[in-house]
Design a protein that fits this description.
The chain has 99 residues and is mostly helical. It is built from 5 helices and no strands. The longest helix is centred in the C-terminal third of the chain and has 17 residues. It is globular, with a radius of gyration of 13 Å. 11% of the residues are buried.
């Protein structure tokens, strides 16, 4: 699991050094399906997972990234999306993480 987190961190660091054209200008999560999410490149997946992690935290939650929980949630979302490729990503995330 730590290897996965490390690879995500490295992907984020690599994204910072990529030419602008290598990343989408905007990622519209409201129109992204699970299949599109799973087919995205690693950098885009990492950015999206990080955004979702922050979005689904409580308003008063401390600014802490729980890497174990992050990996667990990423796995849950990946499994759900693999089983439901036509569902919207935000719908899937709501299903998995919305309290």
């Amino acid at each position: 699991m730590r290897k996965l987190v490390l690879s995500f961190a490295l992907a984020g660091a690599a994204a910072a050094g990529l030419p602008h054209a290598a990343l989408a200008d905007k990622i519209d999560l409201s129109t992204t399906t699970c299949a599109q999410f799973l087919e995205s490149d690693k950098t885009e997946i990492m950015l999206t997972l990080a955004w979702l992690d922050a979005y689904y935290k409580d308003v008063d939650a401390p600014p802490v990234i729980d890497t174990d929980k992050f990996v667990e949630n990423a796995g849950k979302l990946g499994e759900y999306c693999a089983a439901n490729p036509t569902i919207g990503l935000i719908t899937a995330a709501d299903e998995m993480f919305d309290n």
